[in-house]
Amino acid sequence: MKVFIIGAAGKVGLRLAEKLAHGGHEVQALHRGAEQSTKLSAVGAKPILGDLTLLSAQKLGRLMKSADAVVFTAGAGGAGMDVTNAIDGRGLELAVAAAQASGVSRFLLVSSYPDAWRDRERSEGFENYIRVKKLADAHLVASGLDWVIVRPGTLSDEPGTGLVAADVAIPYGTVPRDDVAATLAAIIHQPKLSRVILELTSGDEPISSAIARVATR
Ligand SMILES: NC(=O)c1ccc[n+]([C@@H]2O[C@H](COP(=O)([O-])OP(=O)(O)OC[C@H]3O[C@@H](n4cnc5c(N)ncnc54)[C@H](OP(=O)(O)O)[C@@H]3O)[C@@H](O)[C@H]2O)c1
After folding, report:
1. Is 7 in the pocket of ligand 1 (CB under 6 A)?
2. What is the pLDDT along the chain (217 residues), one digit of tens a residue?
3. What is the 189 CA–ligand 1 centroid distance (Å)?
4. Is the CB of 51 under 6 A from ligand 1?
């Protein structure tokens, strides 16, 4: 399969790019920093330089044309409300428009729990992040694409275990980025899982069986 990853040089994106490339897939890796091409090539992905704030939907659509699936895992990374609005918000809308324009139907989005960190002090920036993520989910749901939204809990860089809790609604928790990438890869291999919002934390079920269970319910 040919998979177009937006945010491919990020912590989840790079793990996913490596996993897919090692599995024999063609990985097109959109990244915005020229220096990131080396690490993307090193994991077997094809680097494609592009900035979500500068691309048009038509141009991004041409870049992703003929892909079997798009994965959007870009994010502002706490760079402030304006950047969150531009990347997690308008960037997602741009990517959806590009997928529609180029006829790529399958679209996976890395989102977040709407109830993330509700037990902590709530800053204006974090509240904005949660709001933008939720509106991005709603935008994708209304797109008509063959979407899957993954809402991971708090991400960690701990090694993955391959064991998760995954369902349409589960309690909030944490999850290693390795396991988020492995879950995205499993979803790419499971076309029956469609138009589902999947919450994801560490758990005790193998990723492949969790995805198969939800897909065939
Ligand atoms: N942190 C958490 O606990 C948590 C929890 C749930 C969900 N999430 C979400 O999970 C997703 C992936 O997280 P992560 O840890 O992999 O984040 P990350 O390492 O910050 O990766 C995000 C990627 O998006 C890229 N990006 C930002 N602006 C861009 C632009 N204008 N054009 C193109 N690419 C751009 C970044 O590029 P650069 O490398 O150049 O900065 C980065 O590579 C994010 O959407 C995040 O909101 C995070």
Report:
1. yes
2. 999 999 999 999 999 999 999 999 999 999 999 999 999 999 999 999 999 999 999 999 999 999 999 999 999 998 999 999 999 999 999 999 999 999 999 999 999 999 898 888 789 999 999 999 999 999 999 999 999 999 999 999 999 999 999 999 999 999 999 999 999 999 999 999 999 999 999 999 999 999 999 999 8
3. 23
4. yes
Annotated catalytic sites, by residue? 129
Run of H or E residues at 196:
strand 196-202
Report pTM.
0.98
Domain boundaries, the chain: 2-215
Phi, psi at 110, each rounded to 5°: -90, 110
| Bridge partners for 167 per DSSP | 199
| Span from the CA of 163 to the centroid of ligand 1 (angstroms) | 23
Q: Please list, in sequence order, all residues whose beta carbon lies within 8 angstroms of the beta carbon of residue 86, skipping any fewer than 6 positions away.
A: 52, 53, 76
Gap between the Cα atoms of 198 and 195, Å rounded: 10
Pick the CATH number of 2-215 from 3.40.50.2300, 3.40.50.1820, 3.40.50.620, 3.40.50.720: 3.40.50.720
Query: Half-sphere exposure of residue 51, counting CA atoms within 13 Å on the CB side?
Result: 7
